[in-house]
Specification:
Length: about 270
Amino acid sequence: MVRSLWTAATGMIAQQTNVDTIANNLANVNTTGYKTEVNEFKSLLYQNLQQRTTTADGTPKPTSAQVGLGVRNASITPIFTQGSLLSSEKETSFAIDGKGFFSVQGGDGNTYYTRNGNFDWTLGENGANMLATSDGLPVLDTDGDPIILNSSYVVSRITVTEDGEICYPDARNIPQSLGIRIGLTQFNNPAGLERLADSLFAETAASGQPINEFTSNNVEKSEVIQYYLEGSNVQVVDEMVNMIVAQRAYEMNSKAITASDEMMQQANNLRR
């Protein structure tokens, strides 16, 4: 009975984490570039109550007697399916159609990755224009350098092609390439990326080395779509159903604790 108390307690702890994950998904339903997360579980150790043996007449028993000791959270895995494309009137709004990530430079000088293409032009050194995130982090090109244009360019006239090429109109108002391309990066295992705040991801050993789409011919190229943003891929209906299931599982584990407590109380009353 004491074993059942601890087993049910592990179920309640696991389902509490499950509800926390679902709540985080629902909270980010309108976050640009957010990827929904799924909680995965694994069973704990099993205790052998009886080994495989035989009956009194020598007939072998096909199975042993084992009892499980509960459950725990194995991982919280992001699902990198394509989010819906949302129209935007800002010329620095970019959505990725494909498996790529934008590369940005963090305040610590390291490179991070995001699907949030809500960028802006900010003033850099000597009045130059630098493409940056809403938090001021520089967006990187295919060479890993910040995208910086001198002050002679009118940023509202800049256009970006589907392959990320930055263009500016000439005297005949025909867009011409500036020789700068927004960098797009892929990973062999994006689920292995470390999730950070502000929709940023960091490279890990599990994700593999970043793959530059511009220099690699072995990956399917992504497209950059200007005047659009990628919405989150959270399905509210699915999350509400998952929350109901998690609540019911939590409730059943709490009832198991109550039942074990009542059985222990009955056992204590036997001596009276």
